[in-house]
Task: inverse folding
């Protein structure tokens, strides 16, 4: 393992087979810790003087397409080939870079209200609570181990742990497992069952309207069977009965 000195004096670790190829360039460092250099774009590919930015970890793995290169331990100054992994362009980001906090461990913080250590992990932009742990150094380490277990379950071999483990990790990365969508439910059309033939029920004859009980047999006949004289008689009798009924109710 060899080291390359940056402009700000930071030492970056690289593999011996990559040292000669990379050490001839001048490298700088972003605020997020990643190492880069600027290269002049060839004249035939530009209209004016322009530069492009090249990242050291991508130069090590010689990746120029849309694929991503991530650090196993989350340290951007560790550009050894064993610490770099090339993933697909749709790979979701892993844990955030730790910046300060009440604990030196990732995913651990001090809860003032309860006076205990709290463990949490962020998955797909949402913060997931992992539990509370007793005060003191032992409780802080228990919270850190709880974070490591959750990180292994979610990110597998690519998880950034508080206590790196030797040997292969058996858990696959949940972020790398392809999403399996359930098959669309079959739309079943309702079966049309022929209903049994029903005999029409006989229609009951309508009773004469209220106040026309004395008209006689004229209401037993159908309207089209009545003569004009019978219709006039039925109408006069019906109106007369209703009129006399009103007079009786008023008196």
Result:
């Amino acid at each position: 393992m060899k080291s390359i000195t940056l402009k700000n004096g930071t030492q970056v670790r690289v593999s011996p087979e990559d040292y000669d190829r990379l050490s001839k360039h001048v490298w700088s460092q972003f605020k997020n810790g990643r190492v880069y250099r600027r290269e002049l774009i060839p004249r035939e590919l530009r209209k004016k003087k322009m530069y492009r930015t090249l990242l050291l970890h991508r130069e090590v793995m010689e990746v120029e397409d849309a694929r991503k290169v991530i650090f196993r331990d989350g340290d951007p100054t560790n550009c050894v080939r064993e610490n770099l992994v090339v993933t697909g362009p749709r790979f979701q980001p892993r844990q955030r870079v730790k910046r300060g906090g009440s604990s030196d461990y990732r995913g651990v913080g001090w809860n003032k209200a309860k006076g205990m250590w709290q463990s949490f992990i962020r998955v797909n932009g949402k913060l997931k609570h992992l539990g509370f742990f007793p005060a003191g150094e032992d409780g802080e380490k228990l919270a850190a181990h709880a974070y490591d277990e959750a990180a292994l379950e979610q990110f597998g071999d690519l998880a950034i742990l508080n206590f790196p483990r030797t040997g292969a990790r058996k858990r696959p990365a949940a972020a790398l497992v392809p999403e399996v969508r359930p098959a669309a439910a079959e739309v079943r059309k309702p079966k049309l069952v022929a209903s049994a033939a029903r005999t029409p029920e006989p229609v009951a004859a309508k009773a004469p309207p209220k106040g026309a009980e004395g008209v006689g047999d004229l209401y037993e006949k159908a309207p089209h069977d009545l003569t004009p004289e019978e219709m006039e008689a039925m109408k006069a009798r019906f109106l007369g009965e209703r009129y006399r009924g009103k007079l009786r109710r008023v008196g």
